Amino acid sequence: MGSGVTIGVGEPLQGVIVEEFEALYLAHSPRVRLFCRRRIEESSCDDVVAQTFLIAWRRREDLPPNPLPWLLVTARQVISELVRRSARERDRPPPDWQSLAAVAAEVTATERADALRALATLTPADRETLLLIAWDGLSTAEAAQVLGISRATFGVRLHRARTRLERAAAEGEPQRSPGITNHTRTGGCHANL
Amino acid sequence: MPTSDTFDLLTRLRPDPAADPDQSAIGLARLQREIAAEPPPTRPRCRGRVRRIRRLVLVVAVCAVLAIPVLVFRGSPTAAADLTPLAERAERQKSLQPGPGEYYYRRTRPGADDTAQHQPSGEVDREEWLSPPGGPQTVVTRNKAGYTVLWRGPLMGYTPWASLSTNPILLEAQLRLRASGSLNQDEAVWEAVRNALVENPDPPHRAALIKVLPRLTHVTVRSGTDDLGRPATVISRTEPMRGPNNRLTIYLDPVTGRTLQERRFNRGTQVNPDEVVIGSSIIVEERLTEGPPTWVPLPGLRCTVAESDGESYQCR
Lengths: 193, 316
Known about the structure:
The structure holds two protein chains of two kinds.
Chain A: H1 16-37, H2 42-58, H3 68-85, H4 109-121, H5 124-134, H6 140-147, H7 151-171, H8 182-187
Helix pairs in contact in A: 1-2, 1-3, 2-3, 3-6, 4-7, 5-7, 6-7
Chain B: H1 6-12, H2 21-36, H3 49-71, H4 77-91, E1 103-110, E2 123-130, E3 136-143, E4 148-154, H5 168-178, H6 185-198, H7 203-212, E5 219-225, E6 231-238, E7 247-252, E8 259-267, E9 276-289, E10 303-305, E11 311-315
Helix pairs in contact in B: 3-5, 4-7, 5-6, 5-7, 6-7
């Protein structure tokens, strides 16, 4: 990205830079949307995706060659801001992230349900650590970048989260710890107006 | 559970990120609109006369499109008749804007039929301290599980009411301009007004905001009471963009115009189309205070740093 071409009001959105950006949107917006749907209601994700790519457009000169981690970091910030400013939207139910899981031919329905159940017992932080790798397909370095932590710290978190996941799967019963989430902080109940 | 690695199994459940062509097309079209609406970057002055004329025509066209719903009254005359006296009373009220060293303090709790309060970790009480513009916001919540959660961070106001006009016509035009990318401008303006009303606007802005409400479509006004039995002017509007059954109701004090309660009704969630979800909050107290906000350490409670985007503690 970033040949230095500028597009202003009144000019048609054409040219190499726009085509490149549209290609970037088509390539990465589904992943950004999936990332968003794990965190907030699907109906809000249109706004999050649009805002994320609008920011990307403004910063198009600075986008890295592999922009997905950058986009997810941006989406995460957009979601945080959205949740904070719309804390009054406590009526929204938690996102149904389980429904995003694919139905794989080589995984039985029971295995799928057990795995998702085990995953659901983890704290949101543990769950996100695992899903950045398992579902978003990021490397540990990229996932660490998304969470804003060092690669070593992420490695430790991933190891612990995997351990807890396996333990939850083995025991088959909830082990939820009362960790703070955006939902409990701002939206679980009556939140601030 | 089989002995296979659950994490590897999860990897095989990776969602298919294949784009929905319709969704992508709609999203791309929206993005193009928003990019087109971006202010032009600083650049050398253009000397092309044709380009200047084209820009002028575009600006005039956009202004004309935005002006139509402002100039053509499409709201409810009845609602306007009900809300205009309320707005005039609100304008004469004492301001609760915090000065230096002061905080606007507000305490809220869930309404009688709030769905989330029945959850095991449902919130039961919330206190907020807002400092003067530019300062931080402090939020302390308590939930049914016995936890007290404290959060402190920058105030992320949704509607920058202070920079907007106190003339209702101009105010509506400004809010429509801010909502120009929305597919339903009236709903976006309604949401902006509703947010601004609970972001502690000063009396002139509160009055203007109230006067904007009846200019929007689908707004109804009646007299009633909030969940605490306080007399209220009850303003309601369907919100089709949020869902076919969504309705937001705001309860304003009939004397001061300040928000007493909000209630959002939604039938049909992503998980269960028949489920009814109600979010309801009551402001039980609001005032100016000089004391610093509650913060750790809290007597008798043990606090740990919580993972959050702001400075946050969880105490029990």
